């Protein structure tokens, strides 16, 4: 049975042909390469290799056959961000605070408890300040680890990230301008709650798609 590897996300498919669409990242079949296991012969394993020849062969060359320039300081920072999982770590901030914030907002409306609405407001402020790092680190991972592939999955994640950032900012500004928006007599209560639902929906969708990339189910 042949094995095919998605060059975007690393998903492994078994079959005579690669799948039409990668079930993990959504890349088309042209992004799959066949995995070929080469068996080393006894002659190759026992042959002596010239150290000078080996050193020459292992040098990394660019498309023009020249030794590439060393990575810039920014590239080193980006590589460290990917290596040390800055994006998935930073994502825990909105993923943890947003559900609590939305829950507090609905409870504040139901029980008319202003303390919960204040707690939700402060949670959203943390989310607003955390999202630039979440988005920036996500773009770095997308470019460095997934070659900037614009599949449906990555496009959806980018849109959801933008929606979370925008809606969280809108809710914070809205709460400052109209402190009584969560009262039952407010004419904008329904719209305010709807924006909260959109925000949490976008966050859940982005988290689900990110989980598919990590666990590759």
Description of the structure:
It is a single chain. The chain is mainly alpha-helical and 217 residues long. It has 2 domains: 1-37, Rubrerythrin, domain 2, CATH 2.20.28.10; 74-215. It is built from 7 helices and 3 strands. The protein has a 3-stranded antiparallel β-sheet with strand order 2-1-3, with no helix packed on it. The longest helix is centred in the middle third of the chain and has 32 residues, at 114-145. The two termini are 20 Å apart. Residues 40-46 and 52-58 have low confidence and may be disordered.
Shape: elongated
Number of helices: 7
Mean pLDDT: 86
**In percent, how much strand structure appears in the residues?**
under 5%
pLDDT < 50 stretches: 40-46, 52-58
Radius of gyration: 25 Å
Q: Compute the number of structural domains.
A: 2
The strand count comes to 3
What string gives the helices and strands in order? EEEHHHHHHH
User: How far is the N terminus from the C terminus?
Assistant: 20 Å
Reading side by side through the largest sheet, how are the strands ordered? 2-1-3
Helix content: 55-70%
Largest sheet: 3 strands, antiparallel
> Which class of secondary structure composition applies to the elements?
mainly alpha
Topology:
Layout lengths: L2 E4 L5 E3 L17 E3 L7 H5 L4 H7 L15 H11 L2 H26 L2 H32 L6 H26 L11 H27 L2
Antiparallel strand pairs: 1-2, 1-3
């Amino acid at each position: 049975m042949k094995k095919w590897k998605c060059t975007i996300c690393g998903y492994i498919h078994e079959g005579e042909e690669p799948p039409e669409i990668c079930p993990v990242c959504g890349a088309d079949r042209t992004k799959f390469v066949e995995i070929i296991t080469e068996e080393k012969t006894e002659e190759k394993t026992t042959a002596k290799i010239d150290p000078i020849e080996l050193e020459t062969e292992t040098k990394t060359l660019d498309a023009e056959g020249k030794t590439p320039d060393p990575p810039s300081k920014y590239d080193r920072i980006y590589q460290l961000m990917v290596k040390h999982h800055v994006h998935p770590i930073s994502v825990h901030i909105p993923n943890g605070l947003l559900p609590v914030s939305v829950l507090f907002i609905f409870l504040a409306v139901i029980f008319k408890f202003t303390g919960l609405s204040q707690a939700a407001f402060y949670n959203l402020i943390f989310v607003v300040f955390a999202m630039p790092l979440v988005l920036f680190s996500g773009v770095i991972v997308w470019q460095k680890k997934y070659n900037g592939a614009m599949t449906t999955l990555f496009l959806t994640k980018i849109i959801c990230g933008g929606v979370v950032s925008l809606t969280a900012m809108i809710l914070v500004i809205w709460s400052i301008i109209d402190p009584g928006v969560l009262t039952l007599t407010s004419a904008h209560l329904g719209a305010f709650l709807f924006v909260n639902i959109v925000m949490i929906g976008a966050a859940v969708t982005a988290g689900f798609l990110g989980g598919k990339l990590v666990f590759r189910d």
